[in-house]
Amino acid sequence: MLTKTQVQEALLHIGDMFPEAECELTHSNPFELLIAVVLSAQCTDALVNKVTPGLFEKYIKPEDYVEVSQEELEQDIRSIGLYRNKAKNIKKLSQSLIEQYNGEVPQTREELMSLAGVGRKTANVVASVAFHTPAIAVDTHVERVSKRLGICRWKDNVREVEETLMKKIPKEQWAQTHHRLIFFGRYHCKAKSPQCHICPLLDMCREGQKRMKKQEARHG
DNA sequence: AACTCGGGGCA
DNA sequence: TGCCCAGAGTT
Length: 220
What we know:
Number of strands: 0
Strand content: under 5%
Number of helices: 12
Structural class: mainly alpha
Distance between the termini: 31 Å
CATH topology of the largest domain: Endonuclease III, domain 1
CATH class of the largest domain: Mainly Alpha
Order of helices and strands: HHHHHHHHHHHH
Radius of gyration: 19 Å
């Protein structure tokens, strides 16, 4: 596994590669953020951003989602995937906010995770972006990149990946690290075709070196 | 631990 | 045009 200093070095390189890796979520209020992140499960932010403007004009508060019919809400989010689950979860979640939290979005990860459609990743994103709770949200990009680079172990589960990242990275860098690893994973260290041949991290990346060796062997 | 949900994106 | 992606919940 990489040491703290090696992780720092890797993050600096990634920062150079993606200077634009800043927070993509700029929702003015926690409720809209929560809905947007729940919607974004299993699809890209770009896709969600197509429906949210209209959605947030029509639905302002939890009551609006509770009062609308399941079918109508499904139609309003039809263009993203998994719309039946998501519509159901959003109605249920809104009901919980009204019944248990006076219509407000709760601030702790535990409370957030108790809501329908909110798992560990979503809870971390909302807690950190809306309420500035230090957290590292581990999505598949962050997990894959952390494992390939050797920031954590291959066998680690999501919780362990999260703990290792928090241990090896200073708290004030968590938010930035989250975005850097996402950009790096999405555009460079991709699941199917990682760009190892042009990667500035190749020297410190065991997985990358393994892949390059395999490639060499195939060619000659 | 493996499967399901369901679109859009892309080869 | 068919394979691939993404996160939460269920079994």
